[in-house]
């Protein structure tokens, strides 16, 4: 995805979710400039996560990595949501709604067969079988994009209308048999409460 398209999607998502953001032309332009500057870090984060996938309900190291990054940015962070999920809250400096953005965390039981410096070499057990694990459908990219957005929000915190809630959801690909997890468990544990957790 080109940087321009990624930036356009980012700003469009914010504008539709928070009309006060859309109405503040200067804030929107500053957010666009900051988002455009995140490209190299976004790529590095995506490659780091791509190389270290974890299966559904097993995303403990991924959750720790995300939590550390978000805490360093100044977010109020809750870990262990629906087992390994992470919820991060940033209160803006102006009144407004709570806007939630979500990314999925888990990899798939698929062996990566391409030769890249950041290719996954992770092995695990799935359904009683030894398998390779990889981010085969973009969850590494989703997490990297949401972390980049988190950095932009943090830099604009005093000017943000409302509260930003970032939800990193485990077990999107399907939890192992006999285990609770995923979006259903996150909702049960209150992730959609409008008040910051």
In summary, what is this structure?
Helix content is 42%, strand content 21%.
Describe the protein in words.
With 197 residues, this protein is α+β, with helices and mostly antiparallel strands. It has a single domain, classed as Zn peptidases (Aminopeptidase), CATH 3.40.630. It is built from seven helices and six strands; from the N terminus they run αααααβββββαβα. The strands form two sheets. It has a four-stranded mixed sheet with strand order 1-2-6-3, sandwiched between helices. Strands 4-5 form a two-stranded antiparallel sheet. A hairpin with a 2-residue loop joins strand 4 and strand 5. The mean pLDDT is 89.
CATH superfamily grouping: Zn peptidases
Distance between the termini: 32 Å
Helical content stands at 40-55%
Low confidence ranges: none
CATH architecture: 3-Layer(aba) Sandwich
Rg from Cα: 17 Å
String of helices and strands: HHHHHEEEEEHEH
Strand order of the largest sheet: 1-2-6-3
What fold name goes in the CATH topology slot? Aminopeptidase
**What is the count of DSSP helices, taking H or I runs of 4+ residues?**
7
CATH class: Alpha Beta
What is the number of E strands? 6
Give the domain tally: 1
The overall average pLDDT, rounded, is 89
Q: Globular, elongated, flat, extended or rod-shaped: what is the shape? A: globular
- Report the sheet-strand fraction: 15-25%
Structural class: alpha+beta
Major β-sheet profile: 4 strands, mixed
